[in-house]
Amino acid sequence: MNRLLNLGREPRDDFFAAREAGLAAAGGARRECGVNESSAARPEMKTKPAVSVAEWKAIVAEFQRPSRGRASWQLVNTLGGYALLWALMYWSLTVSAWLTAGLAILAGGFLVRIFIIFHDCGHGSFLKSRVANDVAGFVCGMLTFTPYHHWRWEHALHHASSGDLDRRGVGDIWTMTVREYLAAPRWRRVAYRLSRNPGVLFLLAPAPLFLIRERFPSPKANARERNSVWWMNLAVAAMVGAMVWMFGWQAYLLIQITISLVGGALGVWMFYVQHQFDDVYWERGEEWNYTAAALQGSSFYRLPKVLQWFSGNIGFHHIHHLSPRIPNYNLERCHNSHPIFTEVKPLTFLRSLKSINLHLWDEQARRLVSFGDLRGRPQPSS
């Protein structure tokens, strides 16, 4: 199925450490498939980064400073709003199923916003204090059923390898190249098509991903990350037990599963369009460039203000991947601060819907293509 949602650092010593860890953990999807695609046969990269690392680091530095006031207000209006909606959903069960469903959509939006706070805490960007980030991150992780330290480790690998074809497979959407797909056995092609089906990807997969998959650590995780899964499982069990005691098991499951389905679908959609869109950047090995991967391989998803609020400004994903140390409440200000950011082509909501039909990376054309584009292409010989 799909391999999703996960944290990192900007290009300093800790970033390059994560990059090396990513090499070992990801294992290289290309090597898994046994495909040998010569980089010499591919055209040159379309665009080069307009600024050096030193230049953009100087630009973003002022936006990396956390604000206790802004962070505290986000915690209050997000956690408070989520708690209020939960109570209203419980009350609405005796009034109207349609009212409950409408409230579930709002609560799902708040759950996405909680996840963004969790995400920022993992980056160490939300608050100044590491302890405060860890505490807030653990609480938000409990509400989103996601183990804090384990997810932070996996997400670091995502940031260290995003846009690198040789290091796919950790914290990302399963993406095959055209050649890999055509060379794959039938069962693998069927599995890949299922994983790319919108019904599976956005409706069926999210709930099992968060409610079941996150209950088990990766075999490649170290002791701290593995233990964080078990501690989170205990915390989740205690939270669920308390909620069942207060509301009853039927009401709790009905409300929580509905919220998780809505929030999971919204969250996976947001993650999907952040790296799966027209003109996205992918490169191999030594040709991969951190700055280009951030500004060209991560979308600037321009949303209406209300959706931007619910998604915690994560639509400014090109800024986030350039410098994960910028908290979500500073992303828009950073984007507006310099032409190298504002000149990034925005991905509108309507245009983002077309991304559903992008399935494979074509290394020759340097773009994502649909399954339909493969009609008439011969299968490569073994």
Helix and strand arrangement:
Layout: H1 13-26, H2 29-33, H3 53-60, H4 68-92, H5 97-123, H6 130-143, H7 148-161, E1 176-177, H8 178-183, H9 186-196, H10 198-204, H11 206-211, H12 223-247, H13 249-275, H14 290-297, E2 300-302, H15 305-310, H16 317-322, H17 331-335, H18 339-342, E3 346-348, H19 349-352, E4 360-362, E5 367-369
Parallel strand pairs: 1-4, 2-3
Antiparallel strand pairs: 4-5
Report what the structure shows.
By secondary structure, the chain is mainly alpha-helical. It has 19 helices and 5 strands. It has helices spanning 13-26, 29-33, 53-60, 68-92, 97-123, 130-143, 148-161, 178-183, 186-196, 198-204, 206-211, 223-247, 249-275, 290-297, 305-310, 317-322, 331-335, 339-342, 349-352, and strands at residues 176-177, 300-302, 346-348, 360-362, 367-369. The longest helix has 27 residues, at 97-123. It has one domain. It has a 3-stranded mixed sheet with strand order 1-4-5. The protein has a two-stranded parallel sheet with strand order 2-3. The relative contact order is 0.17. The model is unreliable at 1-45 (pLDDT under 50).
